[in-house]
Design a protein that fits this description.
Length: 319
Amino acid sequence: MADGQKRRMHTVPEGYLEAFAVHDPARRSAGIWRFDRTSGQSKMLGVGQSEVEKDFYTVFRDGNPDTGIEDIFCGIEGDFCKARNALLERTPLLKEHRTALARFIAAQLLRTPRFFQLMQDGLDAEGISYERDDLKGAMLVLIDRWIPRLARMSAVLAYNDTGLPLLTCDNPAVMWKKNGDSFICGGVDQYDPELVISCPITPALAFVAYQTHESLQAVHAERHDIPRAERVPGTFVSHVDGGTLPELEVKRLNQICISNAHRYVYASYSDKPLLRFLQNRFFGSPAPVRSRDLQPIGSPVAIAKATRPLQCSGHFSGS
């Protein structure tokens, strides 16, 4: 970098993308197929070259970089990779694995440039002054609040045993809901009774969580004005089921994932059927816009004309 500072953080963790990498013996390092919404181009890159937004979480204190947030995210990603490896081996899901998975999904829901821009937009609209570095710290608080919400949802670890791999993107964790025979990826928040959260973990495994009465009740009952040390702890049962995805559901989850992509889709392969799929649903289409947004998800500078929630046709019957 021009100022000599090392930039380590990025929106999509390298450890996460490694699961979607193509381990080509001819390459010195693992590569991944990256598909570009804007140009329609596809090419294989090194996993370490596929970062989306470098230098987004660097916080400066008294003119010097503070790596505290980076270290926290590195810990979240490291714990997630351990949990992912255990899940692929289909071993019993331990508490630390469930917690690591929830922390990672929560972080991927919120640690995007678009969410950061949303916080800025909201504070600007209310005339509240703030420091950018303070907002980055606030993201950690919001991520922390999402962990028990996810734990109270009904979760499914959906294994993909088909010949069609799952795709991922630069916004892999998606908030969506059913809308008849279609689904909505925009305008959905934690208060929606039909909220579904999904995230591909590897080409052969996806995490899907459904809103429950308990999870919705817990969100409405949150009291942010009460210090954490003074809150009365509660107990709840966390439900995590296992299942196998038929090919139709793999296609639906891929469609939901790419519908939430800002610019890039990642995959462990590239063939004509995949390129046709992306050509019809991804290449050249605008980045998604939530109903409350003024700009595309993931882009704090681009301007979008669309103002309605993104809707995509297709059946999705659940896992």
